[in-house]
Design a protein that fits this description.
Helices cover 42% and strands 25% of the residues. By secondary structure, the protein is of the alpha+beta class. The radius of gyration is 19 Å and the shape is globular.
Length: 264
């Protein structure tokens, strides 16, 4: 493994940091939809959702963050995953070409990307019992840059796979998550509560190996989110993905009962 040239592990980000990353992602995501839909269609979409006349729709620059985020979720749910894929089709095709170039330049070498959240007074078993429902059931709300999501079974495979369309570091990526057994873990597994998978592009090109672990420690639950990506991926891409992990898991945690808090 090639040593990364950046702080490859974001360990124990604070709730304040994560909320700031969420806000930044919200403004980026709303910008994508405004650009792809065009001003008139975007305003029509907002007017319909809010039940107001199109002339009452003010520029998004004047909206507060909560309004912006709520509207963003509603627009994505209203458009739906298939139509969203079509809307972002050109961007997805471009990202597939770029990913293939990064893979070619990497020559099989990878670089790590980890985010670790610490949740005091919570256990791994509590977490995994609730997490699938709150994460996949409210996928658009868990990260502003989640644009589409759905199940996409792999022929001959009984393990459920899914796809997601996400905006990461200036590119729209269609990513299919292929679930695996433990033998394909990219780091040593230390907990019985874990997820092992691969991320692949729309045409099946492997982007990264994934091993997430939910580990009980004396200080509480550690949520260890780890991928191995081609070494040629830009630093900004890796850093944004570290933030992406923190945001989507933090927002899922907020929906659990009892609601946990993070430890810095």
């Amino acid at each position: 493994m090639t040593q990364a040239t950046f702080p490859w592990c974001k360990r124990y980000p604070t709730e304040q940091q994560i909320l700031e990353w969420d806000k930044q992602a919200t403004y980026r995501a709303i910008g994508v939809l405004e650009e792809k839909l065009g001003e008139e269609k975007f305003r029509n979409q907002v007017a319909t959702l809010k039940g107001i006349d199109i002339n009452q729709v003010t520029p998004t620059s004047s909206w507060d963050y909560d309004e912006l985020r709520q509207t963003l979720v509603s627009i994505k749910e209203d458009i739906g995953a298939p139509a969203m894929q079509e809307l972002l089709g050109d961007n997805i095709s471009t990202s597939v070409k770029n990913v293939k170039q990064y893979i070619s330049e990497s020559k099989g070498e990878t670089r790590p990307c980890s985010t670790v959240l610490l949740v005091p007074n919570y256990t791994a078993e509590q977490f995994v019992t609730q997490f699938p429902l709150v994460f996949f059931g409210q996928y658009y709300d868990n990260h502003p840059e989640h644009f589409a999501f759905g199940d996409e079974p792999t022929e001959g495979d009984d393990i459920p796979d899914h796809y997601t369309v996400e905006f990461v570091c200036g590119e729209i990526h269609f990513v299919k998550i292929l679930m695996h057994d433990d033998s394909k873990a990219v780091v040593d597994i230390e907990s019985p509560f874990h997820l092992v998978a691969s991320a692949v592009t729309k045409d099946g090109t492997k982007i990264a190996g994934i091993t997430h672990q939910y580990v009980d420690t004396p200080d509480g639950l550690e949520i260890r989110l780890h991928i191995e990506a081609p070494v040629a991926f830009k630093d900004d891409f890796i850093l944004r993905h570290q933030e992406h992990f923190a945001v989507e898991f933090y927002n899922a945690l907020k929906k659990m009962e009892p609601r946990p808090s993070l430890q810095a």
